[in-house]
Amino acid sequence: MIRKIIIGTNPKDAMSYYIGMTVNGSTIVQIELDERHLALRNATAYMVYIKNDEGVMPWKRIEGMPVLIEYDCDFKGRN
Questions:
Q1: 3-class SS string, the chain
Q2: Are 70 and 5 in contact (CB under 8 A)?
Q3: How far apart are CA 64 and CA 15, in angstroms?
Q4: Measuring CA to CA, which residue among 8, 22, 78 is closest to residue 52?
Q5: How far is 30 from 35, CA to CA, in rounded Å?
Q6: For the chain, how big is the Rg over CA atoms in Å?
Q7: I need a labelling partner for 52 at 20 to 30 A (CA). Which of 8, 17, 24, 59 fits?
Q8: What are 21-73's pLDDT values in tens digits?
């Protein structure tokens, strides 16, 4: 599960989005690799989904940009 995506060549100056981030009164609830785009075009694209009073909907599509992915590493219950 992707927790955070950083967009740009230099992480210090890049734009980032993360699960739980508030944007224009909505909350980012999911970031995922667009597997269909990868299969059809052999190129990576990521979808960012938000939730508000109207429900969950796609908000941003990131493609053709260098990205750094941070995964959600939940080790609870593991030895």
A1: CEEEEEECCCCCCCEEEECCCEECCEEEEEEEECHHHHHHHCCCEEEEEEEECCEEEEEEEEECCCEEEEECCCCCCCC
A2: yes
A3: 15
A4: 22
A5: 15
A6: 14
A7: 8
A8: 999 999 999 999 999 999 999 999 999 999 999 999 999 999 999 999 999 88
